[in-house]
Amino acid sequence: MRESIGTVSLLNFVIFYILLVFAFLAGTLSYYKAYRINNAIVTSIEKYEGFNQLSYDEINQKLASFTYERVPFDCPSEVNSGSKTGYLVDYTSQGKKVKPSTDYNKRGYCVYRYANDTSYKAKGSGAASSDWYDTYEVMTVVTFRFPVAQDLLKLRVFSRTSRLYQFITRPIE
Description:
Elements: H1 2-47, H2 53-66, E1 78-81, E2 84-88, H3 102-105, E3 109-114, E4 133-143, E5 154-160, E6 164-165
Helix pairs in contact: 1-2
């Protein structure tokens, strides 16, 4: 009788360990997919030097080929990164900040623009104002599909572009 109790508890530990390992693998693959999506979006924005109609079309083509599940979520209108503030932009706004809407939230990603994001300081005070560089930050969401609790856990993944030179100085309005 004592051996049968030990075998059942040992079997429970083995099953729990197997479930834990598979949950970890599923989470890792979902996280990898979100970073792959972010990198594809960032590459398109850098290729077309901003979030515009050309980059938007290429992003949609890439998302369709990656079979990215576009989870609707609310995009905040501003994101703070250190001392810089990124504003939500749309491909039609030409770099101007927009208010979050339900149509924008159904895309499955958010794009933020950091205007005049210079990495060096001018002599005196303030950032150098002779050249205008912007950076863009992309946010996507990783969801984990559990059989019992759908959409229980959503993690946000951020990626940022390198500095992009703006040929037309466009301040945030």
